[in-house]
Amino acid sequence: xxxxxxxxxxxxxxxxxxxxxxxxxxxxxxxxxxxxxxxxxxxxxxxxxxxxxxxxxxxxxxxxxxxxxxxxxxxxxxxxxxxxxxxxxxxxxxxxxxxxxxxxxxxxxxxxxxxxxxxxxxxxxxxxxxxxxxxxxxxxxxxxxxxxxxxxxxxxxxxxxxxxxxxxxxxxxxxxxxxxxxxxxxxxxxxxxxxxxxxxxxxxxxxxxxxxxxxxxxxxxxxxxxxxxxxxxxxxxxxxxxxxxxxxxxxxxxxxxxxxxxxxxxxxxxxxxxxxxxxxxxxxxxxxxxxx
Length: 292
Ligand SMILES: O=C(O)CCC(=O)C(=O)O
What we know:
Blueprint lengths: L15 H10 L1 E4 L5 H5 L2 H8 L5 E2 H8 L11 E5 L6 H7 L6 H9 L5 E11 L7 E4 L7 E2 L3 E7 L10 E4 L40 E3 L7 E5 L4 E3 L9 E9 L4 E2 L26 E3 L1 H6 L1
């Protein structure tokens, strides 16, 4: 069968241990779970998206927030969201109109339940990029809420701490606390948002259990929307750190407006507690996804 860009298969089952780890720790590394050829095939789509109009230059943003900060490296931190809406390869990769191994992995962690796509994002730290990803929880940025809400982080390049692998605070999803969102490349809160600021995790390492995973292509991490996470710079002189993050919701996830955060156009005016609709397509099980 001919492979289409965006096709990605789950090549092994998700174990009971992995399901238990996800719910206990708020994060799990699923090693060797995805067909690496399907992941690598997304490289040109990622490169195009990062040079398209939907891409934001986080390096420029960090510079404008703190002109006196550390001088930037040669590389840029670029990111963008909702590529699946305009680019077929991203839609297939997330499970829209195709059976996606990424969606299948999350469905297994959620107990085989129906899954909707919340959004995708691309996060590229080019070689020698100094910008960090500040500690944050994804839930703080979403206008949706629920227990079955998670992000997959799928690297297109091997990632380790020195090249910007993600770091997670183990169990931080369990208290139920959702902190104030920050500007992503700094601890500075987003103006107009509410809540307690994220604690200074790196200043108090004894208080927080931090875990990080060196990942190969074909591995992915899945973290709960309330799990605190961050990533360092990419210090590699020649290798980029490219990743696709996809955020999925189970049936318990509903609209939940957070003051000051940017709602997607179709979320505006929708009451808190409303179920997610067709703007967040069903991506699992695949037969339901293809009918929806
Ligand atoms: O890739 C990064 O640097 C951060 C990614 C992230 O925070 C996410 O996908 O939720």
